[in-house]
Amino acid sequence: MSKKIIFFLLTVILALAGCTNEQAQPKTTTTTSKTETKTVNVSNETLPKDLEVALVMQMSIGTFSSQYIEGVTEQVEAFGGNVKVYNAENDLSKMASYVDTATTQGVDVILIDHGRADALKEPVQRALDKGIKVVAFDNDLTNEGVTVIDQDDYSLAWRSLKALAEDLDGEGNIVTIWVGGFTPMERRHTIYDAFLKRYPGIQEVAKFGSATNNTALDTQSQMEAILKKYPEGEIDAVFAMWDEFAKGASRAIKQAGRDEIAVYGIDLSDEDLQLMQEEGSPWKVTAATDPAEIGRIQVRYAYQKVVGEETPSIHSVDPYLVDRDVLPNEPVTMDDLGQYVPGWGESNAAWSDWMKETD
């Protein structure tokens, strides 16, 4: 109970720290911290135009990543800047090298996607020491001056798992798909451990997962082997901690005709929605945020830093539960979800008045 209270209080504090008061003058932004109120005057002459932005990614796999990149690119270009994407292909040492490369090239902003602090803390500090603004997504960096955005992975995992538990009425056999080495995955697994203790009637019969260049296809092959090992009636559900896992598992289950198995996932993209809406799809529920909006929020925080606004150290994006049963019969995209999932796509995070003049 004490941990829940801590999480709740942290969420409230961060929400208050990130609030921005609207001003009468459209290009004057007021931001409030715990200790002071700072007003930043932005004129046409001082608008941050032509900024060079480096996006350093641990890896770029699947449509979630592609939509996230689209969100970053769209927002930077709307502000008149330029983006260069560095894909480290799941090599943390290469990722650290890319941060140093961007620093040496003298970019204005470095955006970081995933990665780990033990590999990136020092190169990120070198960037900060050069005056480069840094905003990270799904990372455990704690360098002073860095804003870290996350999807509230604890809530993502709990929402999906709670739906699974309710549908199974607290009893059943599940297969879990997970891989370590990624900050969001490990946060999700923390909740999974607690979930198994909360619902002792739900048993894990198999667990696997790996991150490769063909994660969905590899997952499909591994799931096919699991289905052969556990015949009909021995698996009730699959909990997939990444949409690439959910895609592979869903295709294997559907092709095997195992319609008694439901898939509960995390993350969402247009491709995922299409798969969820297919006739006979086992993918029933996913907990998600909008990857494109995460990219846009990350860029807006970076630009706020450039003009000297106060920004929070942490920002958690509110997740939503998307249930296939609430979707219409016709195909939908991420842009349509707000019609069926209340609150989806309504984020106003990190907006400053002067940005509305350039957007």
TrEMBL record:
Origin superkingdom: Bacteria
PANTHER family per UniProt: ABC TRANSPORTER PERIPLASMIC-BINDING PROTEIN YPHF, D-XYLOSE-BINDING PERIPLASMIC PROTEIN
Residue stretches in coiled coil: none
A family per Pfam: Peripla_BP_4
Subcellular location: Cell envelope
Alphabetic keyword roster: Signal
Similarity field: Belongs to the bacterial solute-binding protein 2 family.
GO molecular function, one term: carbohydrate binding
Gene Ontology CC: outer membrane-bounded periplasmic space
Lineage: Bacteria, Bacillati, Bacillota, Bacilli, Bacillales
InterPro entries given in the database record: Bact_Solute-Bind_Prot2, Peripla_BP_I, SBP_2_dom
Signal peptide annotation: 1-24
Provenance organism: Exiguobacterium sp. (strain ATCC BAA-1283 / AT1b)
Protein's name in the database: Periplasmic binding protein/LacI transcriptional regulator
Domain Periplasmic binding protein: 55-310
